[in-house]
Every structure is written in C-alpha cells, then in structure tokens.
Amino acid sequence: MMNKITILGSGTSTGVPILGCKCSVCQSTDVRNKRLRTSALIEFHDEKKVLIDASPDLRTQLLKTKIDSLDAVIITHDHADHTHGMDDLRPFCFRTQTAIPVYSDESAGKDLRRKFQYLFDRKKVFADRPILGGGIPLLDLEVIAPGSHQIAGHTFNFHALPHGHEESLSIIQGKLGYVVDCRMIPDETLKHFHDAKLEILIIDCLRREPHQTHLHLDLTLEYIQNISPKLAVLTHMGHEWDYLSLMSELRTRGTNNVFPAQDGQSFLYSNA
Ligand SMILES: [Zn+2]
Ligand SMILES: [Zn+2]
C-alpha cells in the first residue's frame, strides 16, 4: 500500500524570493525557484492526513492541495518558519468540531503553549469569557519523546537532531525519511535511517557553505550516500540555489538519485 507525501514548501525561513532581494534567483521567473516556507503533507492510503509543520505560508499551501480535513499535525520544532501558520488550521476544526492533535517534543511544546496560549490553554484563557467572533482552531498539544508513536493510526519514528539551541524531530514513516532543520546527524541516527531502506529521503540543504544550524550541500550529500535512499530530495533551500544550476551540479557530481525539491511536488512511498 502506498502513501503520498507532498512538499508544500521547500524554502528556508525567508522563503524565496526574499523580500527586496535583487539576486538572480530571487528575480528569476522559473517557478522552480519560488519556494514557500518548509511544510509537508502525508496522505495515507486509508485517507488519513498528517501535516508536518505549519509554515507561515500554510493557507496558500493547503489551498493548492484541495484537502478538506486533517487528522494530525507534527511540529518538528518551534521556529517561526515552522509554526506561525498554526491559526490557518481553523477551517478544518470548524468543519468537524473535533480537536486536531498537534504533536511536538517537550521543548517545542513548552514554547508552543506560550506562543499559542489562546489555542493550547484555551480552557484557561476562555474560562471566564466566551469566545466571540470568528472563533479559534481546536488544537490539542500532545507532547511526545523521540521514539516510535502511532499518529493517525500510523507508525512514526522520531529522532531528535541538533538545531541551534534547540532540537528538531526527524521522521521515519514507512519508507519515507524526513530531515529538516538540523546541523548534523549523529552516527546512531544515520544507521536508523539507513536500516529503514528508504524509498525517499527529504533532507535539509540550506546552502553551499557550512551553517551554524543547518546542513550544507557537501554534508547533505555525504548523509544521502550514507543513508542510501532510492531517491533523495533537497529541501529548506535558500536563494543561493538556482534550480537548474543545482540540478546540473548534482549530475556532474554523479548523484543521479538526488533532486532539488519543487513546491507542490508529490511522491508515493510504501507504507512499510
Ligand atoms: Zn526552518
Ligand atoms: Zn529551524
């Protein structure tokens, strides 16, 4: 049985083009150089749907998918480019009047509860006053530790990766691997990803030069070689990457199974 992952956005925190930037990629008319902030959607064979991250571009991204419901949300970490679209989930909750679970690790959970107190502590916030007007999304925060969890009836394996002062949750679901926002991948985690015999690996590749909090091209390619998925897709890309130039560089380097992501692109992968 096959599931589908759609890359809703493949851009770094600014998105591409960057506001006001005059560089050739930001000025490019190639739609493959237009990158919304990083989010993804898994549609399972049984029609369950799980969103990975709620980017500030979420409404625009989800309109394109035409989905009308969501079963769960996973937040990899609490950075603005992965969470500030949270309120855009409102219409899904209105339709069903049931809360959607939002999964995060403990540290992100604390920050989410603080930032989105009106959502995740809504009983307290609205204890002595009714919610008036347009209402709020019904979202329930579910704090999880790294490891294996059932989400929307499917098995997800999470590994915590270093990302600046925080950690970010990487994901193995069936034959899919999803690794965004990390500075490095420890050997033990690499082995888990390798042993999962992935059909598709979607992985951080911010830029060419090393970065304090993200993977860069050489390191990303080293990890791809180590994990050896059938197909690897580079995401969370900055404005340094022109789609066609990067594609031709990847071929010159002999990495024929590696592609830069395009927003809106979907891939099928096996459930187990
Ligand atoms: Zn990010
Ligand atoms: Zn981040």
Strand order of the largest sheet: 6-5-4-3-2-1-14
- Might you state the CATH topology name? Metallo-beta-lactamase, Chain A
Write out the distinct hetero groups bound to the structure.
Answer: zinc ion
Distance between the termini: 8 Å
The computed structural class is: alpha/beta
Low-confidence stretches are none
The CATH C-level name is Alpha Beta
How many beta-strand runs?
Answer: 14
Key features of this structure:
272 residues; alpha/beta; Metallo-beta-lactamase, Chain A; seven-stranded mixed β-sheet; 14 strands; globular; binds zinc ion
Structural account:
The chain has 272 residues and is α/β, with parallel strands linked by helices. It has a single domain, classed as Ribonuclease Z/Hydroxyacylglutathione hydrolase-like (Metallo-beta-lactamase, Chain A). The chain is built from nine helices and 14 strands. The chain has helices at residues 58-65, 80-83, 90-96, 106-115, 117-120, 122-125, 187-195, 217-227, 243-252; strands at residues 2-9, 39-43, 49-52, 72-74, 100-104, 139-143, 147-151, 154-163, 166-173, 176-179, 200-204, 231-235, 258-260, 266-270. Strands 6-5-4-3-2-1-14 form a seven-stranded mixed β-sheet. A seven-stranded mixed β-sheet has the order 7-8-9-10-11-12-13. It is globular and about 65 Å long. One zinc ion (ZN) binds next to helix 2.
